[in-house]
Every structure is written in C-alpha cells, then in structure tokens.
Hints:
Layout: E1 2-3, E2 10-11, H1 14-26, H2 42-51, H3 60-72, E3 82-83, E4 90-91, H4 94-109, E5 115-116, E6 123-124, H5 127-142, H6 153-186, H7 195-209, H8 214-230, E7 238-239, H9 242-252, E8 257-262, E9 268-269, H10 280-292, H11 296-299, H12 310-322, H13 327-332, H14 346-355, E10 358-365, H15 376-387, E11 393-396, E12 399-401, E13 407-411, E14 414-424, E15 429-434, H16 440-443, H17 449-455, E16 460-461, E17 471-479, H18 482-491, E18 498-499
Parallel strand pairs: 8-12, 10-18
Antiparallel strand pairs: 1-2, 3-4, 5-6, 7-9, 8-14, 10-17, 11-12, 13-14, 13-17, 14-15, 15-16
Helix pairs in contact: 2-4, 3-4, 7-8, 12-14
Amino acid sequence: MLTCEICGEEILLEEDMKTHLFLCHLENDLHCPLRTLSGVDNAGLSTAASKTQVAEISDQNNVNVLKDELHQTQPLSAEKLFSCPMCPLVFSCDFLLQEHVELHLLEQHSGERSFQCPMCSAVYSNSFCLQEHVELHFDHELSRDQSGSPHSDLTLAKELQHKEELKRKQEEAQLERQEFKKLQRQFGLDGRGGYRRQMERSMERAVASGHLAPVDFHLKKADMMESLASGVDDGSSRTQGVIRALEDYYQTECRDSVHVWLAVDTDHYSSSAGDKGWGCGYRNFQMLLSSLHRIEAYSSVLQEKTIPCIPRVQRMIEEAWKEGLDPQGASHFSKRLQRTQAWIGATEIYVLLTSLGISARIIDFHQPTGSKNTHPHLFDWVKQYFCQSSKSSSLSPRLILTHLPPLYLQHQGHSRTVVGLEQRKNGSLCLLLLDPGSSSSDTRKLLSRETRLTAVQFVRKFPRNLKHKQYQLIAVQGVLSPEEKQIRIFNSRTLSAERTP
C-alpha cells in the first residue's frame, strides 16, 4: 500500500500512484514557482513564466545554488519528482521547472534589464550607469548659480579661477594706486597746490603761532601776488657776491690748495617757505640763469632778462613741452607743472635751456668709479671742464677765475650747483657747491670774514661726501641756431644722457 505524501490518499499500486499524482496534483493545479499562478497546463506555465517579473536574484552564485537544489530534489517514488525551491510546486520532470527558472533569470539578470532614474525619465541598462547619472543630479544642484542655470564641473572650475584672477587683479590695482599716491605725494603731484598755496599755508601757520603779525601777513601776501603776476622772482631768497667771497677766501686765507677754479659770478637762491622740500631744481636753474646773464654770449640771446619765479619756471617748461621737447617727460608729468609741487631734474633743465636757445649736455655718471662708492671720474670731468676756458684770468698761480657758467649737479632726491673746483696739495680734488637747501642767512656768512671759515666748510665737498649711486651734470656749451634748436627738439623724442665712463 502506497500513501500520497501530498494529500495522504492510500494507493494500492505504484502505477495508480503515478496516475493519481498526475491527475490530482500536476495536470490541473500547476503553480508558478516565482509568482501566484495556477490552473494552467505545462505550456501555459512556460509562457506565463517568461512574461512574469519576479524578485531579482542578486548574483551568479545564487543562480548556481538554485540549479544545484533543482538537481538535488528527491523523487516521491521510483520516478524522479522535482519541487520548486521558491514555492510548493512539484514537477514530474525537471525540464518544466528548469525552463521556467531559466526564463526568470534571463529576464531579470541579463544585460537587457532597464533601470529608470528616480529623478527624471532617463533609462539605463545597468545600475552603474544609473548611479553616475543620479550623482550628476546632485552635482548640478550644488553648482547651480543665482540664475538657476546648471553648470558642469569644468564651468564651475573656470568660474572659480576667474574669481580668483579678478580678486588678484583688484589687489594688484589697489597696491598700484597706493604706490602711485605715494609717488605723487613725494613728487608733488597729489593736488596739494603749488608754490602759492604752500606759501599761504606757511604764513597762516606763522600767524597762528605768533611768529608773524597779521599786518605782516597781508604785506607778504601782497608782495607774493605781485611777484606771481609779473613772473619775476621777488629776490627774497637770493644772496649775491658769493663768488667774490670765495675768491677773497682763497686769495687771503686758504693755504692748503695748489689750484682753485671758479665759475663766473653766480647768485645763490635758497628754497623758501613756498617751495621747501621740492624746489631745489627750480632754484638751481635760477642760479644758472643768473650766471648766464653775466656772460655776454648768452645774455644777448636770452629773452628772459630777469630771474623768473618758480611758477613762471613751471610755465616755461610746459611751453617747451608744447614745442615738442621731451614728449616722454611731458607725459610723465601729464604735461602740467603749474599749481603743483612737482620735482624737476636734469632732463627738465635741459629742456628749459634748449627752449631758450642754449646748447647743453647731460653727462651721466651712472655708477661709482672709485672705492667705497665714490665718483673720482666725476671730479676729473669737472676739472677738465674748468680747465678748458681760454678766457680765464689768473690772479695768482693757484686762483683761476673762468668765464664759464656753473654746472648743474643732480642726484637722487636733490640737486646743487657746482661753482668751482679746488685741488689740494695732496692731489685730492674738492668741488665747491652752492646748495638751495642752505638758508639765505647761512649763505650770507660767506660774505663776512668773521664767519667765512666756518661757512666755507659747507661749500667744499670731497669724494667721500658724494657717494650716491648715480650723478648727472648739465653743462652749458654755447648758443643754438634756429636750425640746431629744431634738431635738438626732434632728437629729444628719445632723449638720453651721455653715459660715462
């Protein structure tokens, strides 16, 4: 007697048990092992399995395990029976179950499966591409700008680079503006006003401190306004007779010099309250012009018969620029000097002299030529300059009065006037300099024998006293014809000094 293990019915013969299983448990009650489906035949079961979406099997190892279980299912009788590992369905042969499961695996785990993005309608064939796509959604949200338009990583990187570059340029521009303002203030181009405004402020401070009476303030201001209106220097800072005082000193007092050369008579002009700190170039030009007025070869061609005031000198330089002289220098000052405290140097003195029809040279001693940063070559050049005069007169074997104008001497931040040269017994050379920085009261001490010995020490300068990196000399050397002047104007487009050595 055989008992059906499915329903418990007792069957006598084995053949009857097979019939029972087929009729009662297989033919009319087939179940899909992957979903709820019954009441179909074998063909219907295969078709339904191919169309059914079931739970996904994660990897190939699970598939192998499933196949092993299918093949390891034990029959209920001598004929092999196969039960589905996922549902109670039993098959009499394994091809039905195997076909059904293989179809499920083909659908769910082949490369043809589609994956839809949860954030948009995009569909991908595998989970890796889908993951990259979803991550891009989040990246785009982070890189969205204020207008709401998305940017790629490259665009975002370019924007960041552009912002950094813009920030760097702004910082550089700010630094340049600060440096430019410093230079403007240093060279008097910062809009503080020129000679007149500085003089007025100085007198106002003097009144406020009690050093100047209000009545004197108005008198001085009236004199200043008259001078500015006429363009002629008021002479308040001028000291005459300096060269004659030096001549007397070397004739009667100095005994340690072998030779002394002196320029033609030159007036000293000191900086005043109106140009203190920036007027040395203008004052040295006034000294040079005072000497040219005493030399017939120059005085006869000079239209300026008087010594101009500083605002007038500034206007003269501007007029020279308009003639075409030194366009680079004009651009540096924005073609404007009046009502400024702008410093001028050797180039502007050359421009002034050329515009007046005077021939001049710029000699550039661009580096030290001696030990300890000294310039012995500069001293030798000055000696040759004063020795060239054939119209010199000698009062004694060691004192030589020349008919040469003085030399304009420029170095960084200051300028002075060379009015002579002294050669001492030990062979050393000494320049005789008039400094606009020396007050009129100090300069006048040269005129008195009681104070001359002390005052002359401020005029004598030895090589150890001139140790700036660079010096420039302006030397007057004749009168220009109209044709020569035009050539100088043309050549000044690329104005350069004569470098020596």
